[in-house]
Inverse folding.
């Protein structure tokens, strides 16, 4: 683990700044059940604004489940039940009066496997803006698409073939297209569920670079199985184990001086 | 805890041992076997299809060809415009068959007897033969009284004769010089060569064969006579005596040498053509014959070798519909250059008819198209709508489970049951018009709805969930996700299912019989509520008719039905490609 520690010292300042930043998402006493299975047990966590928070932990520990609670994607699973209090900018996202569609426009999501729509690159990015009525004119929309693709560092690669299908791009490009698609609706929070697990190291590096840049404007939560990735991109890290949040804190603290034995065992590769 | 496992020595796997090699050989053999069975199954299936299609094409091809006479016809005003009026309505009342008859009579001046005329005009000329001349004159009434070139449709039997399916016709040239005794009535003909030796020996060998069969029959009867009761013995013995007499006669004639032999109804006909006329042979020896004149000879001068022909019609006169006289007339028409062969457009442009030469499939074709229109118009929106709701929106509970099970059950219900349902509901309860494409379409819609729902649900289910998640994650509502992303992706599958259902409906006969679409309908339907028939029912109706010409029509209609199906499938593939191109 030692070699991954090094960049952490450089990120120290940013991390301590992040830890003190106001929380974008706060969760208190969250419990999630899949039927009779208790997937998340009594979870409390604060997600700092305009920073990258990494959720790490062994498979089946509940980190993806919690991520999907934040934009209520778990609603689509009929046996899933969520209790407790999750707030986005202070307002309860499980409030009955809240429109889940509007919530998802505020909380974007990037999935494990790149899943662009089988439409043109332009349509992929423009779709969110269209359904939410974000643009007034064609020129406006063109501009939004270009801006989103630029922010996702994809513009230069695809600007000449916007009408070609999104599924024809390489894996890494597809994932950046998905990120562009997510940021085109100007969300406050972007959830990333293992966004690099299906990509090669070069594509992964590009995505990580991109995440680092997006941090300036968006609150990012990333679930990852790669400790190196968590160490490289995140300012705050939360370690999940068997449905409970074992430990959370600034990334450098978690990786250098973990308080809990389980965290230490996991990050040093003793289990998981 | 894994130490025990790790420390166990690895089992050595010897790839060169005979056991390992035998295993490899066995695996290869199994693969070869599987491949062989697969290829054999495909070859077998392909052979069946080739056999089926070629059989249908061979049988159906004659339906697309027809023979007609092309001749100058003169319509006199007495025949067609008795009161001098030449407007359309009055002209339609004219006796146009008389025009045709007088035209044909020009080539057969000798046919004057009533019975003969009937055999010529009623049996060789179609009852629809006057349509062409009538249309020509109605289009231009000034042609009345002038010769007009028109086509005259032949009857189905005459048409079949020219297609070669009435009898095999062999013609050979006379080798000797012939002398004939007269030009009409019963005549004698003698040739200087032995022109008829082969015919005589053929007839005699036929007689011998018949004698052998009679001999067996006599033996059978004699054996039977021992076993039957005494009261029936007398009649049986009488039968034996008759057979014995017949046998003696057959033996005598079959074994005779020289002399002459009669040609009856049950032997191949022999005709002589000379001096512009035709003699039907009634008795023939090696060199001379006696016979009856069918078409008068122009003179009784001697015919030189090579100037006269012997025609053999293999099918005996007693077992075909056209007599030797009629065949002679048809040959005469052909010699005059009147007969022309052409594509039978009539087959595609007319409705059903009792006369095979006038029957067409347009009625069935339009009926099928209208019925399919109703079926498609109902099935696609209802079926796809039901599938979307059940697959995407319906709560998963007992009720939807029951609905789902019952949809699957309905897909397996025999089609005749839907016909009965249609009869009870649409005809008896709602009083809808019987035999109409509307009711047919409704019944077929019930029939294919389950198929379309099941296929559409499968297509919707096959859309990867990642697409749904992507749309939901972007803030699309459930409905938006389904209609913007899932449905377009499922569309090719839905269309394929719909086409399979429609093809099923197109070929369906049984339920339509129940709602009266089996009626004999001549008119081509013009609306959804008129009486109509559909292609498969038309095929079913024709297949039942005794006329030989309808057999070709049946196969021809099957070809058209298959083409209809190919077109529908082609359209589906095109649509699918079009949908896919958008992505």
């Amino acid at each position: 683990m030692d070699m991954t520690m090094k960049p952490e010292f450089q990120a120290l300042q940013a991390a301590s700044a992040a830890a003190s930043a106001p929380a974008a998402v706060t969760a208190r006493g969250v419990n999630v059940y899949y039927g009779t299975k208790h997937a998340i047990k009594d979870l409390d966590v604060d997600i700092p604004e305009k920073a990258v928070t990494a959720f790490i932990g062994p498979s089946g520990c509940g980190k993806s489940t919690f991520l999907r609670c934040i934009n209520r994607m778990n609603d689509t699973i009929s046996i899933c039940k969520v209790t407790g209090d999750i707030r986005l900018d202070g307002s309860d996202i499980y409030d009955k009066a809240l429109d889940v569609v509007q919530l998802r426009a505020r909380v974007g999501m990037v999935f494990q496997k790149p899943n662009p729509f089988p439409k043109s690159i332009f349509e992929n990015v423009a779709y969110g803006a269209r359904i939410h009525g974000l643009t007034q004119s064609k020129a406006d929309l063109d501009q939004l698409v270009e801006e989103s693709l630029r922010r996702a560092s994809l513009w230069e690669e695809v600007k000449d073939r916007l009408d070609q299908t999104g599924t024809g791009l390489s894996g890494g490009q597809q994932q950046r297209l998905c990120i562009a698609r997510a940021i085109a609706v100007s969300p406050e929070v972007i959830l990333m569920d293992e966004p690099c697990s299906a990509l090669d190291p070069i594509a992964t590096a590009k995505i990580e670079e991109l995440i680092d840049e997006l941090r300036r404007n968006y609150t990012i939560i990333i679930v990852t199985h790669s400790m190196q990735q968590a160490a490289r991109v995140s300012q705050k890290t939360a370690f999940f184990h068997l449905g409970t949040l074992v430990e959370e804190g600034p990334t450098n603290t978690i990786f250098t001086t973990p308080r809990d034995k389980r965290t230490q065992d996991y990050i040093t590769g003793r289990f998981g | 805890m894994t130490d025990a496992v790790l420390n166990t020595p690895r089992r050595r796997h010897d790839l060169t041992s005979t056991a390992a090699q035998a295993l490899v050989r066995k695996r290869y053999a199994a693969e070869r076997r599987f491949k062989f069975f697969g290829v054999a199954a495909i070859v077998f299936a392909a052979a069946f299809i080739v056999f089926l299609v070629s059989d249908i094409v061979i049988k159906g091809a004659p339906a697309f060809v027809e023979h007609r006479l092309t001749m100058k016809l003169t319509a006199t005003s007495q025949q067609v415009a008795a009161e001098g009026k030449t407007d359309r309505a009055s002209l339609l009342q004219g006796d146009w068959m008389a025009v045709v008859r007088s035209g044909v009579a020009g080539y057969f001046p000798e046919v004057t007897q009533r019975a003969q005329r009937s055999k010529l005009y009623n049996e060789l000329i179609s009852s629809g033969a006057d349509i062409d001349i009538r249309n020509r004159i109605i289009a231009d009434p000034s042609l009345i009284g002038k010769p007009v070139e028109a086509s005259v449709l032949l009857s189905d039997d005459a048409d079949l004769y020219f297609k070669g399916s009435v009898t095999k016709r062999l013609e050979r040239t006379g080798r000797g010089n012939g002398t004939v005794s007269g030009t009409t009535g019963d005549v004698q003909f003698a040739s200087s060569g032995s022109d008829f030796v082969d015919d005589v020996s053929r007839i005699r060998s036929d007689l011998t064969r018949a004698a052998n069969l009679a001999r067996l029959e006599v033996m059978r009867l004699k054996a039977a006579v021992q076993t039957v009761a005494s009261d029936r013995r007398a009649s049986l013995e009488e039968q034996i005596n008759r057979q014995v007499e017949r046998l003696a006669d057959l033996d005598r004639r079959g074994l005779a040498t020289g002399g002459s032999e009669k040609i009856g109804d049950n032997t191949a006909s022999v005709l002589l053509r000379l001096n512009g006329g035709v003699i039907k042979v009634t008795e023939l020896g090696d060199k001379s014959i006696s016979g009856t004149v069918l078409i008068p000879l122009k003179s009784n001068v001697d015919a030189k070798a090579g100037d006269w022909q012997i025609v053999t019609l293999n099918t005996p006169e007693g077992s075909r519909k056209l007599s030797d006289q009629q065949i002679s007339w048809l040959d005469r028409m052909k010699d005059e250059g009147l007969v022309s062969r052409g594509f039978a457009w009539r087959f595609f442009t007319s409705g059903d008819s009792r006369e095979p030469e006038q029957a067409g499939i347009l009625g069935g074709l339009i009926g099928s198209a209208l019925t399919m229109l109703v079926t498609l118009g109902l099935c696609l929106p209802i079926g796809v709508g039901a599938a979307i709701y059940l697959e995407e929106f319906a709560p998963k509970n007992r009720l939807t489970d029951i609905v789902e099970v019952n949809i699957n059950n309905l897909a397996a219900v025999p089609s005749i049951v839907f016909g009965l349902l249609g009869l009870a509901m649409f005809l008896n309860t709602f009083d809808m018009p019987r035999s109409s494409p509307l009711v047919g379409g409704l019944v077929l819609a019930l029939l294919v709805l389950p198929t379309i729902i099941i296929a559409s649900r499968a297509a919707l289910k096959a859309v990867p969930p990642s697409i749904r998640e992507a749309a939901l994650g972007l803030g699309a509502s459930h409905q938006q996700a389904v209609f913007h992303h899932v449905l377009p992706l499922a569309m090719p599958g839905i269309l394929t299912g719909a086409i399979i259902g429609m093809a099923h409906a197109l070929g369906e006969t049984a339920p339509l019989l129940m709602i009266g679409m089996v009626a004999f309908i001549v008119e081509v339907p013009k609306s959804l509520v008129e009486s109509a028939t559909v292609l498969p029912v038309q095929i079913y109706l024709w297949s039942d008719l005794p006329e030989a010409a309808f057999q070709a029509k049946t196969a021809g209609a099957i070809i058209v039905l298959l083409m209809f199906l190919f077109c529908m499938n082609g359209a589906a593939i095109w649509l699918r490609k079009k949908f896919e191109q958008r992505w």
